[in-house]
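== Polypeptide entry ==
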Amino acid sequence: MARLNIIWIKSGIGYAQTQRKTLKALGLRRLNQSVIHNNSPSIRGMIKKVKHLVKVEEISS
């Protein structure tokens, strides 16, 4: 199963509260932090909601 490296690249200030909560739900706490998640439909949905704030790289295992 592929894994995703999600990097927070742009601040959530000035965006909707739901988008800031989505960043928190992904496990991102500070700018330029990266987290690794399994590639699943729920994670892909969260990424789609904040695609303008994060960068996603696929990691093949």
